[in-house]
Fold this protein.
Amino acid sequence: MKYTQQYDLSLIGGVSLVEEDGRILALDLIRKDGGVKSGPLAADAAREETPLLREARRQLEAYLEGRLRDFDLPLAPRGTPFQLKVWRALTRIPYGETRSYKQIAEAVDCPRGCRAVGMANNRNPISIVIPCHRVIGADGALVGYGGGLPVKECLLRLEGSL
């Protein structure tokens, strides 16, 4: 059974969380224009707050208040083998640090795959927890974030990497 819940988190706005079988499937940022990065997972889910969704919200709030650096949640992102490899690499970027798309491509043994890494990053279903916001352009530019560049900038400032 899938469950979903939406929360308003003061620093970044709304988020939608989706759980299935005791694991987080998605964390979608709800943009100010009402758009959701990837809402289909929540479409057939029961609107109910479970203990796991409550814990995910608690950890997100602690992170946004600067009291949590590492999330401890059971995750089940769905993607291709390459996407899963990229997302695992993202989880190894330490709090307060950034990596370029090229560095992530090299980390997943695909040194010429910067664009493929960018596409995998864009499809990250559990943003913030799988920290795609920590990936920046080779020149240090803040590029490509599904929740919008102001949210990416906010998260990087929170972590002290800007």
